[in-house]
Amino acid sequence: MAIAFGLALVSLGAIVWCTIAARPVAGPAPPQGAAAPNPWVAAATRADPTAQWARKAGTEVTVTRARDADLEQVPEGRLDPRQRQVKVTVVHRLQMSPDDTLIEALRQGAGFPGTLQQAIDAAFGAIKVDGVSLTPTTRLAPILTSDAQRTIAQFTVTLLRQLDTDDLLKLDFSAPNAFPLIVTGRSIAVLPGEWTVLRLEGITPEQEQQERLAFTVGAYPVSMTLAPDSYGFADVVVEDDFSWATALGVLTAIALIVFLLRSLGKGWWARPPNRELVIGLSLAAPTLLIPLFAEEWSAVAYVILFVAVPLLALRHAGRVLPTSPPWNTRDLLIVTGMGVLVGLGMLIWSWLHGQLSGQTLLAGGAVAAVAAAGAAIAFSVDLGVRPVIVRLAVLSAEAAIGLLAAALWLRALLTGVYPPDSIRLVFALGWALIPISAMAVATKQWKRQAVVGAVLISLLVQGWPTEWLDSGSWSLAVPQQEPMIGSLTLTPIVRGVLGLLLLGFVMLVLRLRRLGGQVASIDNPVAESTMIAVLMVLYITPGGSTTLADIDVPLPLLAITSLVAWGTARWLLTGPRVTIVEPLDQEEHRRLVRAALHNRLLLVSEQDLYRYGRGRIGAGDLSMADFEQQRSALESAMNRHGRHPETAFATTAGCTPWHNGIHAFTVSLLLSLPFALVYGWPEGVDLTSFIFDGRYLITLPAFGFLFGYFYPRIRGTQPMTKALHLTAAALLTELSGYLSTLAEPDIGAIDKAQVVGIVVGQVMMVCIGLGLFWEWRTMHLAGEPWARVRNLRSVRSLAAPTLALVLAAGTTAASSAAGQTVDRILKGDQITTTATTAPR
Prior knowledge:
Elements: H1 2-21, H2 39-46, H3 51-54, E1 56-65, E2 84-96, H4 101-108, H5 116-124, E3 127-129, E4 132-133, E5 138-139, E6 143-146, E7 151-163, E8 169-173, E9 186-191, E10 195-201, E11 205-208, E12 213-217, E13 222-228, H6 244-270, H7 272-287, H8 290-293, H9 298-320, H10 329-352, H11 358-380, H12 386-415, H13 420-431, H14 433-443, H15 448-461, H16 465-468, E14 484-485, E15 488-489, H17 492-515, H18 525-538, E16 541-548, E17 551-557, H19 560-573, H20 586-619, H21 624-641, H22 657-672, H23 676-679, H24 687-693, H25 699-709, H26 719-736, H27 739-742, H28 749-781, H29 799-815, H30 820-826
Parallel strand pairs: 1-9
Antiparallel strand pairs: 1-2, 2-7, 3-8, 4-7, 5-7, 6-7, 8-13, 9-12, 10-13, 11-12, 14-15, 16-17
Helix pairs in contact: 1-11, 1-12, 2-4, 6-18, 7-9, 9-13, 9-14, 9-17, 10-12, 11-12, 13-15, 14-15, 14-17, 17-18, 18-19, 18-25, 19-26, 20-21, 22-25, 22-28, 25-26, 26-28, 28-29, 28-30
Keywords: Membrane, Signal, Transmembrane, Transmembrane helix
């Protein structure tokens, strides 16, 4: 034992020695030339003092609407189609005499392009434009034009800004910062374009026209404010006492919370671990808002989300599950081996960037690993089991290497220079405990596959593979700007919260899977509430924003489509119902379908007898006695089989609700995929935004899932009549999101009709196609040919599906020629400020 403890202390001492010996890593080197002196200032000090009076500086500022070509370089997710994108082009011109010393300094371009901004600000002064910057300011290379009398240097600067549609645009013209001054006066011309000059500060115009404002200023700052031409100022701002957007939002939130609580069921609330989980999450939720109000306390929110909540979820799973995790030594070796690989990455970073020399790292790591392995052997040698001793030695060596890497990583964090992605990696691994615990609770068992999947999902929540594999992500430079969705910056904590929302939705679906294992769940109010909650979440339409602590935070606008989805789902499930005998297995389903086919044959035969009997009796081909005999035989046969309504085609066909729902969802999704060409494929800067953007692909399939899951409760007694009721419900829900847009007077009637045609065609194709599939599936499960209920040679039999296909094909073809207005409506890019925006 003395040897074992001694070797353990040696291993720990090697780790501590390496950590103390580690040197702070120098930060990223500044761009070459960034610190070089301004060549203009140096040349100005050598020039004749009277030369500045001979120079002439002119600036022309043009304000225009940003075009698509200008916005191509804007990072994905930063553009907000509800706001105004503005392009400000600044052209500076400096006129000099041929013998001016500044000309030679400009031609040499010392430090360009690094000193280009300094040179422009020194001569003309910086120009600041209000609004959210879409891209960094760009500066073109200077253009020199010379003749015998003068030389003109031209500098072009481009700025892209994003503002709300009713925001003012302020231009600040700073004073030149060169000393001595390069020019004594500046002539400035502003071409406002679609803007109107509202305020001038320190400016006396020399030319004042609607399309041009010119003035001259000296070495002092001035500013001006522009207002959009289309924006009017009300004399009195009337506060609306009632807002439909707020009312619908509150109503939707209340309804969604009620259904979420009902989806858990009374039995769930009766268990103490579940109540403790709810209390813990309720206490943790407000702390996640800390970054919005007190950014300096953001570390508390990070600790809560990535440490406290995962530990709470892990503890909850440990109390709920009946068994402990079946992890063995092999699993532990694999996990620690992956940790060693990550640790080696950190050790390589420490060596490459000089935190520790290669010899020190090798010596310290070898001593720590060998001593730790020796200590493990000394501790376990009394067991006498060689495999156990070897495994403990390997585990101890891996733990020593991992501890050394973690110590050097913490040392790098303290000095402020570290691999940027290492932080996100730690956050992702910590957050992964939440989905691991959630999957264990949902499936009632611990699975290795679930652990691997949860870790991969966690990595995707914190960034796409392109972000993780970026060549500079493990360099010295910390990322300067996080991706954005609208004006919401995707920090790790925001990504984690969005991931929790996505995980909550997945848990609802898994609850449907667990409840859908029995036919009795069709009438279970918990399953119904869960299904309605899923539909309402899918139909929540993003849009709008709110202000919290003077911070503009975009939030999902709880649109009317979510409420309509609730209403239509309830309408589908609460219709008049007949008594249905549910088959216990496939054999009973086959017997019920055959009996229904036989009963249908007798009914058709009776109708044919009455239809053709009159003509045959009149023609003498059939006597009254024969007619009565045939009628009596049919009556007797129908009495023996019963005259009850035909319900064999309104049952679950001997399958579980989950099984039926998955089949219906799959068929609906396949029928919806062609319309992705109309709406466009989903996009997103991370996993959660990508999935949220792709909701339009699964909203109709979700209605199909409802159709299959609760099929016996859907209005109607036949697959096609049920499909027609589903068409009405889905069509009303899909069109409800376009009501405010279709009422917009700025949109033409043809565009509106085209949009309605596209939506109607898609809904009919999905729902009617699903009805036909369900009819075929019911007959297929019964071992009967589909032709016995659907005569493919009959025009009447194919009328409904043919109409659906014609409408779908026609509207899809028409959409290929749709203009920008239709495309904007379908994709939700609207100019309206109403409470409801179009869902994708």
